[in-house]
Design brief:
Elements: H1 9-22, E1 38-42, E2 45-48, E3 53-56, H2 59-62, H3 71-83, H4 94-106, E4 113-117, H5 120-135, E5 139-143, H6 152-157, E6 173-176, H7 191-209, E7 214-220, H8 235-246, E8 249-253, H9 268-271, E9 277-280, E10 292-296, H10 298-303, H11 319-334, H12 337-359, E11 363-369, E12 372-380, E13 385-386, H13 398-410, E14 412-413, E15 415-417, E16 420-423, H14 431-449
Parallel strand pairs: 3-14, 5-6, 5-7, 7-8, 8-9
Antiparallel strand pairs: 1-2, 2-3, 4-10, 9-10, 11-12, 12-13, 12-16, 15-16
Helix pairs in contact: 3-11, 4-11, 7-8, 12-14, 13-14
Amino acid sequence: MSTQPDPDPRTGAAVKAADRAHVFHSWSAQGLIDPLAVAGAEGPYFWDYDGNRYLDFSSQLVNTNIGHQHPKVVAAIQEQAARLCTLAPGFAVDVRSEAARLVAERTPGDLDKIFFTNGGAEAVENAVRMARLHTGRPKVFSAYRSYHGATATAINLTGDPRRWPSDTASAGVVHFWAPFLYRSPFHAENEEQECERALRHLEDTIVFEGPQTVAAIVLETVPGTAGIMVPPPGYLPGVREICDRYGIVLVLDEVMAGFGRTGHWFAADAFGVTPDLLTFAKGVNSGYVPLGGVAISAEIAATFETRPYPGGLTYSGHPLACAAAVATINTMAEEGIVENAAHIGETVLGPGLRELAERHPSVGEVRGLGVFWAVELVKDRATREPLVPYNAAGEANAPMAAFAAACKKSGLWPFVNMNRTHVVPPCTITEEEAKEGLALLDEALGVTDGYVV
């Protein structure tokens, strides 16, 4: 395991200078960012060259489910590199086959064929392609509060503002409102109403779009970046029933929610639903080497039994990535990491966040499962006015910027999006570490309380 070395500001400055000179960062105005130079990481912590250590309540991009530098995964990558670094996807490779078997063993229902990609966005791209070819239909439905990736189809499926600059209005995507009781688009007063009205809205939209034109409904089982809105009981089974009735493929996006994040191997298990296609990435190997994929039902796989599937990637099922996945999945099973995520959510994070909500007037709602939680920050609890406006930037986003700065100053690295902070530490986090994070969050929420009207 890594140990935090002595501070080395000179090296840190050189790393920062090289980054600023040559690295073009995603989702950023290049001249307005100041990326932290990271010297190392271990478990739920990482540190900079100045000696500052941070508790990673973001799991980077909600992907280091097994924590940083897990020795079993690092060793598996090293051993695979010494044996066989790479091989084209057309060959049968032991570690690729084993990774596929381990994923298929944990997916619900008959999702037993695995198509590997380099990440989540490509998984969504290929799932939509499969659905369109399987059904012969063009349209795909997705929710407004969603994020599915930054590639062409995935960004058009995405419901948040990151879609807007790339939306060609020609991708065959239809957006609809998924359930979210706290900000109900259906004026619902309880979960039962929200579920019933959301399903009616979805079916009405399908009917008016023409069911015979709809290939797939793509849903994050539990939406991630958009706000960790756990669907009400009955909603996902209801969507499954609608899909079955109209011959529509159900695609569940588990890129963020999968591999222990919700306290289940897949979030679909929490709702008793089996999709036709399931996309995954991130937690499958904690991002140690890029990997994603699509788990495919027997019916859809049969479509391509004698008909070539028109898609592929040079690095599909890359041996190093698959070795990391095999080690990650086996280690999660051996060490009870999925069960730990469920335990931490039930006994520490859930109760702890609800207690913070009682004391901090800027907290409108907390919601989540496992190690997958959102804290909704508001100016006014009665009106539920968000702490910052939708898609706020610059001065309008000052309250959230001040909150994030307070977290980092205290040694907590947050996942902040719009008017929310997400509590998404590694699935390996201990009770003591989770309580440490809650204490730091408690302190930072004093900043947001100052903006309450």
